[in-house]
Amino acid sequence: MAARNPNPLRITEPVWQLWIGMDGLEPTAVLGGIVAEKPGYHSWPSRLDEDDYSLQLADDLAGPKDKAAAFDFTMSAAAMRLYTSRLDVAARARDSRLYVAGRPILREFIGTKDSRVVYCYVLTGGRALGVGADAGPDSGRDDSHLWHLHGSIIRRFVTLPDLADRILSILRGETLEAWRARTIITSTGATMQFTDRLPGATSNPGRTVGQWVVDDSNLRDFLTQRVGTPGIVNLPQGGSPLMLLLAMAQDWQAEAGRQKLRDEAILTAVQGRAGAAEVLARIDQRAAEQLQVLHAMRAQIASELAPLLVAAVGQQLVGQVAPDALVAAQETALRRVLGGLDEARA
Predict the structure, then answer these.
(1) Of 167, 211, 219, 174, whose CA–CA distance to 193 is shortest?
(2) Which domain holds residue 336?
(3) Of the residues 32, 108, 137, 188, which has the fewest C-beta atoms closer than 10 A?
(4) Is position 1 within any domain?
């Protein structure tokens, strides 16, 4: 059974979680090793010579200097064929689970697809290993890989939070479409699962991405649907910026009604002095001006304010904008809207 990380000084938690997941996925799997004092990715950079092949790529040099970056999973012949083949299909298709911002998270994997011939596929840096291209199959690996699956992790990505989920998704046989359906890709290129906790500050420390997405959907429904539309799960709370906006809009409508009565009273008062046609023309002119301002504001909200709010909400999800800053942005937007309403009413 899987246990706690036995060597956190040399093994990152994402790499250890990869073994935890493999242990739960494959009954015949045994951990062959992660850390080893030998050349290559099983060792840590600070003990290697600078010409070691695991220290030649820019993303390898950008990784932690004290952590190993490889895994060996020993398993049955049938399991070796299954998982090597699944990795091969994904690598040849440039499956996005194996890439972050266009850069591969694995240097290579080695196993067998037929239990007779060792198979290695290099995802990047192949020419330095004698491969005819930057990526492709590479021969000449030792026969121990007929019974153990090896993976070299690009050192920059040994701390990638979803490293295990990406690789295990492929090993499980999950489709790329299914993985994407349960994954949110943030503006930094990282991914979050719906069950992950939010990285930013929240009043509920156990709040998950999935719960946030539901609330965000409710917010967008409320912004885009008619007031009182059935199916909106939760309306914004009283005193929230959106409810204040609704109340102020209702107040403005009431004031517009009162202004109409005042205009009618003025019309009555001036009849017989100024011509009725002249007064009516003035009222029509003011009404047209108000409509023009309101149409311009509607276009402004649709093309400017709404995208800004959506962007701010998205940044809050990845912890880039604090909730109080988002509220401030909403209040600024409200002031701009209400200021336009005042101008239209003046």
Answers:
(1) 211
(2) 218-345
(3) 188
(4) no
Q: Are residues 242 and 138 in the same domain?
A: no
pLDDT at residue 291 is higher than 90: no
Q: Is 195 inside a domain boundary?
A: no
Asked if 128 contacts 55 with a C-beta cutoff of 8 angstroms, the reply is no
Of the candidates 3, 17, 11, which has an alpha carbon nearest to the alpha carbon of residue 164?
17
Residues 20 and 161 in one domain: yes
Amino acid in the structure at residue 326: L
Question: What is the torsion angle, in degrees rounded to the nearest 10, for the CA atoms of residue 145, residue 124, residue 140 and residue 93?
Answer: 70
Q: What is the pLDDT of residue 294?
A: 65
Which sign does the torsion angle of CA 39, 41, 42, 46 carry?
positive
pLDDT in tens, 18-64: 999 999 999 999 999 999 999 999 999 999 999 999 999 999 999 99
Instruction: State the residue for tokens 């200021």.
Output: 339
Is 2 inside a domain boundary? no
Answer yes or no: is 206 within a domain. Answer: no
Handedness of CA 290, 292, 293, 294 (dihedral sign): positive
129 is written with which tokens? 């290993």
The predicted-structure confidence for 75-127, as pLDDT tens digits, reads as follows 999 999 999 999 999 999 999 999 998 999 999 999 999 999 999 999 998 88
DSSP at 238: T
Residue 84 CA to residue 80 CA, distance in Å, equals 6
How far apart, in whole angstroms, are the C-alpha atoms of residue 276 and residue 195? 68
Q: Are residues 224 and 162 in the same domain?
A: no
